[in-house]
Amino acid sequence: MFFHIVLERNMQLHPRHFGRSLRENIVSKLMKDVEGTCSGRHGFVVAITGIENIGKGLIRDGTGFVTFPVKYQCVVFRPFKGEILEAVVTMVNKLIPDDMEFQSGDMPNYTTSDGSVKIQKDSEVRLKIIGTRVDATEIFCIGTIKDDFLGVINDPAAA
Amino acid sequence: MPLRRRDEDDDEMEPEDDEEYGEEGEQQALDDEELEAEEEEEEEEEEVETRRGGSSRKRRRSDFIDDVAEEDDEEEEDDDDDEDDYGGGGRRGGGGGGGGRRNKKPSGSQFFDLEAEVDSDDEEEDEDGEDDFIDRDVVAEEDDHRRMHRRPLLPREDDQEDVEALERRIQQRYARSSHTEYDEETTDVDQQALLPSVRDPKLWMVKCAIGKEREVAACLMQKFIDKGSELQIKSVVALDHLKNYIYIEADKEAHAKEACKGLRNIYAQKVMLVPIREMTEVLSVESKAIDLSRDTWVRMKIGTYKGDLAKVVDVDNVRQRVTVKLIPRIDLQALANKLEGREVVKKKAFVPPPRFMNIDEARELHIRVERRRDPMTGDYFENIGGMLFKDGFLYKTVSMKSISAQNIKPTFDELEKFRKPGENGDGDIASLSTLFANRKKGHFMKGDAVIVVKGDLKNLKGWVEKVEEDNVHIRPEMKGLPKTLAVHEKELCKYFEPGNHVKVVSGTQEGSTGMVVKVEQHVLIILSDTTKEHIRVFADDVVESSEVTTGVTRIGDYELHDLVLLDNMSFGVIIRVESEAFQVLKGVTDRPEASLVKLREIKCKLDKKTSVQDRFKNTVSVKDVVRIVDGPCRGKQGPVEHIYKGVLFVYDRHHLEHAGFICAKSQSCVIVGGSRGNGDRNGDSYSRLSHLRTPSHIPQSPKRFPRGGPPIDSRGRNRGGRGHDGSTGATVKICKGPFKGYRGRVKEIKGQTVRIELESQMKVVTGKSTFDRSCVSDNLAVTTPYRDTSRYGMGSETPMHPSRTPLHPYMTPMRDPGATPIHDGMRTPMRDRAWNPYTPMSPPRDNWEDGNPASWGTSPQYQPGSPPSRPYEAPTPGSGWANTPGGNYSEAGTPRDSSSAYANAPSPYLPSTPGGQPMTPNSASYLPGTPGGQPMTPGTGGLDVMSPVIGGENDGPWFIPDILVNIRRSGEESVGVIREVLADGSCRVVLGSSGGGDMVVVLPVEMEVVVPRKNDRIKIMGGALRGSTGKLIGVDGTDGIVKVDDTLDVKILDLAILAKLA
């Protein structure tokens, strides 16, 4: 599920960035630092949508670095158990062959016995998350396509 | 069952109560009930007991107490026949043997009768016994007495003398006893009371002939019957599972001995007392006999099939034999030979592998196969030479003794095999559920999700509420059911749902955690957290847990993901730890090769922190992120976990094979981003880097160190080997450890350790750690005369390039880091000052040593000779600072960064600096493109610093004609051959690998030497042999083994100074 939330982060900035474009520097550094990361608490930070507030910078002793507390709005994504998602297959590996058959080779894929449905890399599937494991910096989910209306929704191979 | 029996008892109770009030004595003849009782008695316990008739001990008990005791007996009868026999038997004896006494002790015998009756009820169920040898007369007599007591009850009832009193009495008595009856928890307490105490007769263990235990017991019984009370023993017990011994219950040892006198097969010389504590154990029934039922998994104990898994198909308790189903181990050829009467060579050592019997195959060998129907089961069996086969399995009837049924844990493989010939799913469940037969106690815990797998409630899910001995109370998931249900433990199985995160607590996979992805009956498929592979485990072996562990990650000194050196000098990363062995991804780059390695095959762990160069000669150290651009794993990317011999072990968590590890040549990787290494490590790698590089330029400038000899780092390569080093005798200051701050003279340098004679303490200290050399800071330049000179020389060498002056200092970190990566870097500017006449001797030295960045601010000042560069330089250190992501200003980190910054600084503005300098812009230009303090490869900076130096020394270009270069211009990459090196350092390059394309002028910044491979023709770009050509005959890490054309010598040279010849 996606959330739009406000998060806070202390940004350390090198003195050379001080000046007129300080704010921009902070923002660009923040984006670089934060976007694409994952925290177990909030999930994956998808994008920063705005800066709420940049606090007063504090110069750190001995280094000249300045720490700014930055409050920013961002879109985070966090998967939940039971959630239904649409996802793109990035990798097919042999895990549990179920009613579909694993075919290894150049383009490993899963195929139903009649060959009508194929899941391979870049296929889009709709799945239901049945389990999540949340670490400090990683969220790990297991999903199933064994349910009504789940499964391949767009197959690049078919197209 | 107990309930039903209770009812019966209650029925009997009432008349009995009356009995208490009535006078006993009215003796009546046997009625038909007696006959019935007699039959019951015939079916005795397995334990043969002789009851002592005339008990010397008179039991005087109130009726009330007796009754209570009686209840208890009933309760425990199921589990504890011996107790029953013990108590009840004795009393029964009172009724049976001592015929006369009954009259004297009426109240007691009343009770005994009842008891005896209840007993026999029980025995009827427990049966088992043969014991035909119980004298029917005795029993009859016994029953006779019992009857006699019963009779008076009924007339008594008619009395009606005091109904109310009677009622009260009943109330009083049964109010309590009923409580006792139904509340299971009190049973334990009551049973405690029945345990033997010191006053009770003791158990004596007497030796007898093997196999004659029962016979001996029977003889003793007979003797007792014959002799009556003369024999002062209470009972005799022969246990089936105990060979060679019987137990005699008697008050005194002498009594037991006396009883044994004159009997065959019994050796009463040695009579051992059974401690009171162990008495109950002697007679408690072993559960193993019960466990052996159909479909139980067992293992063969002896014979060809020893250790093999077998499944019980039939149990014959009477004959103590079991029919089991096995996968046959039959050598058909041998069998054929034997059946045809040919000579059979008996090879003892050879045990045929288990294989399903193929009847057709047997027929082909002319083995007679009979097809027969088993009269008992109606199944057809193939009979080959007396062996029965069905569906390929061998059906074998063996003695119960030759199989073990305790703690059988079939592995998946074995079960799979058994399942093979089309056994349907149901059979499988059933067989699996029998696995529970011997699971350990305490298996279920409160809160566990469980599912009922057997019985009426099958498939009912629930949660464990309470666990008792055998029963588990579960709270069912379904509505409309009682709050809790008691289910037998064996009917339950743990239940998991896909998505649960679990931990394996027993079995081969013990310790690993993962997420359940599939549930197949009792088998879970778990996606392991560590290996990202799926593992199959029994639901029983698993508990739900949020913990993430890696399973067993360590055997001995070796841990998962360690780099290890193997026996055959190959090396690899441990990617999986199995029970006894490791799976190791070998350090072969052309294809992933994993092998199973035993602990003893591992020589040692490799944890050297080295760094190597990637394709673009950037330094790669551990933890740096690289992308693999060549080879089978092209495109993968991840942090470097280990480096050894120029091979990188990269961890890509998206790579699912080999636990995410990929093995790649350093040459086929490019570093992504910057070095992530922390200061300390980088300091280290830095130093290595320098030693990797230095050989190239040391020989180049032989006159550079006219007196002092080469500095420490120039011998870095030899560090481990030769003892002496240039800096021996130098005065140094120790900057770390317990001797921090002390000055001293270097006595000896050996590998990584330095022995220093301390000035102040008159003693010699040795540091052993690898860090030691870096802990030793060069002292003031003044105190190392040879250095000073050399610097002077260097400085003066290039008077017309003032801007280069600051460059030289960087050499110091390069050169010295082997020993002093940190402080040298910092101090160098200062040294410059020392000799640079322009520089005011300003900041105190200590400032520098503390890594105070403020001192860096002064750096531009020491280059007054190069005013134009000053304004530019000022910011550059800044960018150097920015290189440390997160502003991690450790002491170690600082100098490194700053030095690289310095290195970069001059270059863009001094394009004319000849030689290797152009290398620097590489990084310099890279820097500005990384805003926000993108971590820069400090290594890069460091490396590049080198080049100007080399250039400076040679007074000539770094590039030389005829070598292949990669040209990178405006994002394009092309290959070219240098034709001519121009004065300003740029080169005329002919495009195309064979030199057939256009001629262009390329700045050194834009090109890069093509790294030669084995067997390539090369040209040496640096060192004493600069300009020579040769052939690269081998690569060892970062060294190339070169056969020089002119001299035909084989030289070991740094790969960095080798260029591929066009």
UniProtKB/TrEMBL annotation, chain A:
Give the CC-aspect GO terms. Answer: P-body; RNA polymerase II, core complex
Compartments in which it is found: Nucleus
Per UniProt, the keywords (alphabetical) are: DNA-directed RNA polymerase, Nucleus, Transcription
Q: What are the GO MF terms of this UniProt record?
A: single-stranded DNA binding; single-stranded RNA binding; translation initiation factor binding
GO biological process, alphabetically ordered: positive regulation of nuclear-transcribed mRNA poly(A) tail shortening; positive regulation of translational initiation; transcription initiation at RNA polymerase II promoter
| The keyword 4Fe-4S is assigned to this record | no
What InterPro entries does UniProt report for this protein, alphabetically?
A: NA-bd_OB-fold, RNA_pol_Rpb7-like_N_sf, Rpb7-like, Rpb7-like_N
Q: What is its main location?
A: nucleus
What does UniProt give as the signal peptide span? none
> Which residue range or ranges hold the RNA polymerase Rpb7-like N-terminal domain?
8-64
Can you tell me which family this protein belongs to? Belongs to the eukaryotic RPB7/RPC8 RNA polymerase subunit family.
Quote the protein name from its UniProt record.
DNA-directed RNA polymerase subunit
Automatic annotation (TrEMBL), chain B:
MF terms (GO), sorted A to Z? mRNA binding; structural constituent of ribosome
* Primary subcellular site in the record, as a coarse category: nucleus
List all Acidic residues biased stretches.
8-48, 65-86, 114-134
Q: Name one GO biological process term.
A: regulation of DNA-templated transcription elongation
Quote the biased-composition stretches of kind Polar residues, using this chain's numbering. Answer: 855-864
Segments carrying the region annotation (Disordered) are: 1-164, 680-732, 787-943
Assigned keywords, A-Z: Activator, Nucleus, Phosphoprotein, Repeat, Repressor, Transcription, Transcription regulation
Q: What InterPro entries does this protein map onto?
A: KOW (IPR005824), KOW_Spt5_1 (IPR041973), KOW_Spt5_2 (IPR041975), KOW_Spt5_3 (IPR041976), KOW_Spt5_4 (IPR041977), KOW_Spt5_5 (IPR041978), KOW_Spt5_6_plant (IPR057935), KOW_Spt5_7 (IPR057934)
Q: Enumerate the transmembrane spans.
A: none
Q: Would you say which domain of life the source belongs to?
A: Eukaryota
Q: Which PANTHER family match?
A: SUPPRESSOR OF TY 5, TRANSCRIPTION ELONGATION FACTOR SPT5
Q: Which family does it belong to?
A: Belongs to the SPT5 family.
Kindly provide the name given to this protein in its UniProt entry: Transcription elongation factor SPT5
| UniProt organism field | Ficus carica (Common fig)
List the top taxonomic levels of the source.
Eukaryota, Viridiplantae, Streptophyta, Embryophyta, Tracheophyta
